[in-house]
TrEMBL record:
Annotated organism of origin: Paraburkholderia unamae
Domain of life: Bacteria
Transmembrane segments: 21-40, 46-67, 79-96, 102-122, 134-155, 161-183
Protein name: Uncharacterized membrane protein HdeD (DUF308 family)
InterPro entries to which the protein is assigned, alphabetical: Acid_resist_chaperone_HdeD, DUF308_memb
Keywords from the UniProt entry: Membrane, Transmembrane, Transmembrane helix
Amino acid sequence: MNRPVPPIGLPPILASLSAHWGWLIARGVAAILFAILAVMMPGLTVLTLAIIWGAYAIVDGAFALIYGARGGGTRRWTYVIIGLIGVIAGLVAFFWPGETAIVLVMIIGVWAFFTGIFEIVYAIQYRHAIAHPWAVGISGLLSATVGFFFAMFPGAGALSLIWVIAAYAVLYGILMIIAAFQLRRWRNEHPVK
């Protein structure tokens, strides 16, 4: 099946998005590594879970901040906001891990919810700019749903949610990696001249 030929003079944001596909892979791999650590240590205490998740959120937030700062286009501020939310949430969990499980679950919930909302907005805004915006949109919907669930039902306790958190992180990571490879393929099919 022949692909439609893109119009001449594509916006600079397309070149920027496809040039930075590696940041999405880094975010996806970080999420999967977090999930593996959570599953491999089933006896995690709330303290350990808070430290591991805090480190993941800081790394993910840093990747988003770097992408937002280096990326082109007018919408890079969304990645800066996602990055700041991630870094702040990670620092709170990392430096105050002795807080109750409910506080940890609520921090994770708020972070996941807002990250998901921004990713859904991003997927809608750039649905014509990237080859398959569904991967970013579904990861955003997944994040927002899990975040909403955690925020609404924090009393379930962090230890009982380890499997849910790990499954979310794996799915999110896989979707980010798929989106990254789609951007890479788009870049290879539409070289900037």
